[in-house]
Design brief:
This protein has 16 helices and six strands. The chain has 395 residues and is mainly alpha-helical. Helix 11 crosses helix 15.
């Protein structure tokens, strides 16, 4: 009975999974919405990730023209970022992404102060590279040795990267500048103190010359205080002032590279000026002739034929005002830029009766009191080529 009834019943069809009960449909729709949202979010995240990967090397959309500005010393990264926006390297929209990228790379503190060059179509990596570019030195260190003349100094300063030789020579001959520095000579010769300096890279030739002259004045003032009595004696006996002291020191500087000889050589020249028995009062020093034939703007006819070697026409050349063979006393002005030791040698010379000296061909000199003795040494060193002080023969 029961089986028959059971077989006679109609079986209820099973509901497909995709057709939920009416009561479950809202949940299914919610799930679908969430799923779509998750897929969208994943796609957005993927797109953002792709853009992030491209960002460092993707050119920005700014102007292609060159943009130059200077990053101040000590500027913070927000200040640098503001400068990039202000000058059109970054748009306001790009600034935030660039800031995040810079902070991510840890490059915020690598910016160098100084001038930088950009374009608006640079990539973020290129902008960071330019911001971190090593700048040229703010200062240039240069050493000017003792005994160099103004042309030498101009070349030394030019080689250091401070300007052209012509610009420096013009400054060294600038009458207005010389007057402002209380130099009454035609050039700054003698007053460009040899020393090691630090000059700003943007220093003008006039500023460089001024600093060197002021250094000379500082050193000379100290020596003048230390050797006040000597300076007064030179003024009283020879009528000399600071210019004459500098002039003789410049000659001493050119005559010897041996430091211990400077006071003795200065004494020889002073003896020639002071000893009444020494006439005519010719200093007869070759460096003065060479200077007159190379440095002054106007040169004598004989000097115009000078080729690096002194000849008879140069020794007899009265048209060369710097020739101490043709003119008594000091030349018109310094012939080099002396250092402190040479200046002090003139103010504190070594006393002797020597009136002559000749090179021993080893950087030192042989000194003599008479012409006859001097000629003996000239024959030995200049004609026979002896080098160094002759050894004493055993008796």
């Amino acid at each position: 009975m029961s089986r028959a009834k059971t077989r006679g019943r109609t079986r209820r069809k099973k509901r497909p999974w995709w057709k939920p009960k009416a009561s479950a449909r809202p949940q299914r729709w919610a799930f679908a919405v969430v799923l779509v949202a998750l897929v969208g979010a994943a796609w957005s995240a993927h797109s953002a990730y792709e853009r992030l990967l491209e960002y460092p090397t993707k050119p920005l959309e700014g102007p292609t023209e060159t943009i130059e500005f200077e990053v101040p010393r000590g500027a913070s990264f927000p200040q640098v970022l503001a400068l990039l926006v202000e000058h059109g390297v970054l748009s306001s929209e790009d600034a935030t992404a660039f800031k995040v990228y810079v902070l991510h790379k840890g490059a915020a503190r690598k910016t160098t102060a100084g001038p930088h060059v950009f374009r608006g179509d640079m990539t973020p990596d290129e902008i960071i590279e330019e911001l971190a570019r090593k700048q040229k030195a703010v200062e240039i260190r240069v050493t000017v040795p003792e005994g160099k003349n103004i042309l030498d100094v101009a070349n030394i300063l030019s080689d250091a990267g401070l300007g052209t030789p012509e610009a420096f020579e013009a400054a060294m001959r600038d009458r207005a500048l010389l007057d402002s520095l209380d130099i009454d000579g035609e050039t700054a010769e003698g007053y460009l103190f040899p020393d090691t300096y630090k000059f700003a890279t943007k220093a003008t030739p006039a500023e460089v010359v001024t600093k060197m002259v002021q250094r000379h004045q500082q050193v000379f003032a100290g020596l003048a205080r230390t050797h006040r009595d000597s300076l007064q004696s030179l003024e009283r006996t020879l009528g000399w002032g600071p210019k004459e002291v500098v002039t003789l020191a410049s000659i001493v500087e050119k005559e010897t590279g041996a430091k211990h000889e400077r006071p003795l050589i200065a004494g020889v020249f002073l003896n020639r000026m002071k000893f009444s028995s020494f006439k005519p009062k010719l200093l007869q020093t070759d460096p003065t002739i060479i200077y007159g034939c190379t440095v002054p703007a106007e040169k004598s006819a004989a000097c115009q034929k000078f080729e690096g070697r002194i000849r008879r026409i140069h020794l007899d050349d009265k048209s060369n005002p710097y020739s101490t063979y043709a003119h008594e006393g000091l030349p018109p002005g310094p012939i080099s830029n002396p250092g402190k030791a040479a200046l002090e040698a003139v103010l504190a010379p070594k006393k002797s009766r020597f009136l002559y000296f000749v090179a021993r061909n080893d950087g030192t000199h042989e000194f003599s009191k008479s012409v006859a003795e001097h000629e003996k040494w000239v024959d030995l060193y200049q004609r026979k080529g002896q080098v160094g002080k002759p050894k004493k023969t055993k008796k």
